[in-house]
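Blinded run. Sample ID left blank on purpose so nobody reads anything into the name before looking at the predicted structure. Input follows.
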Amino acid sequence: MVNQPRTDSRAKTSASKNSEKNSDKNPHVRPLLVHGFSYEMIYRLASPRTILPFVFLTAGAPVLLAGMILPILAISHTTSRLGAAPFVASATLKKSYMAIGSMMITASLVLIALTSDGGSTVFVLAMFVLATIFIGIGQGVTGLAYYAITPALLDKDRRSWLMNTQNTLSAIVGIGLALVLHFYLKDTTPLDSHLMLIWAAAAFSFITIFAVLPINEPRRSKFEQSAAEQKSPDLLTRLQQVRDNFSMTIEHRWFRNYLVLQVLFLSVSSTLPFYSIHAASLHKNSAGALSIFVVAICVGIIVGGPIMIRLSKKSLRMTMVFSGIVAAVSATLAIGLEFSQQYTHYYYYTPVFLLMSLASQGLAITVSVYLGELAPENEREYFFAVSFFVTGVLGILAATILGFIAHFQDEVVPIAIILIANIIAAIYVKTLPSELQGSDSVVQSLSEHESHARMDASSTGGR
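Blinded prediction complete.
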């Protein structure tokens, strides 16, 4: 009898939280939308996978450094997530970690913009590497806190609406802002026109710091906080779990084939920096070129989403094949422009980025949903963990190798390798078992993953 009032109080608190989450007048929607939109704008205008390599090369950085951006970013991003997980899990106010991560990203963008056009080459390169590391750390910490907060504040449908809205809105605004900057700065120096995108991204990043302040994050009881601290494993425990899970999941033949396909499709999901490097080798000295490429990527996001989601509802495997073919066409076009004597204007390179944006969305939508359909329900998280770990490690290795090839050979050589991998991946899809085409679970999963896919494909490295 003594504990009954406490139980009733806890139940009332839980019911109150659920009521607020489902309410049409949820007070958290607006600040989260402002934060999410501003956060997405950072990666429309200063994507570490497309924009930063272009800017670095224009500022005089070697091709090797531009090629190493993705490995540096991935390592710092993953390490920061693993290291920050226990702190975020036990934090009373997780939004403070969102603000801290945003501060790191803002400071890094400002550092790039200030040091790109001056100082010794060694100093500039050191600042670029430092900024890339802190962008990765900022991404990891912010994303971890964001995905820990939102389920407590918004129900699933409202979270899906929020992500779709901020992704679509940021793509539209990105097109408009990039076009304005293109025509306004076309008579400036190439580096200044490219750096203005970085400054604009820094401004939006600054907004994200303060956008989290109005969020009234529910405070947890000491019991809940203690449980969260005990629940969050440390880095060594997580690595041990991955090793154990690997032995269990790799026994399935279909999953081994799936992992091989995932590695082959790194030629789509992890190769955008090399298209940017190749584009920079042709057009880095053209003022306004980079802003037009931003427009192409955003158009691909807006147009590609509905196309890919409709195709995916018919067949996930068909969508993977289509994505591989689209990526192969993009690579073929890039190689053709390398040797063309007639189509030398940067406008002709915009379809390359548009097609790659389209292909990336198709894969981001389908590969996770496909794995979720075939993996045993009670072991699904293990299959996802192993898949992410394997592709993450091999993605870093592949990007490093391609970076060395681009530096010591030619910028177009990695594109040729990517083209071959695209074709093999599209063919290899046939080795996977068919999914339950048109099933309600597939359609529901696709709806839940569409907004995440748009973010992954476009920025290419957001949260």
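Unblinding after everyone has recorded impressions. Residues 1-17, 436-461 have pLDDT under 50 and may be disordered.
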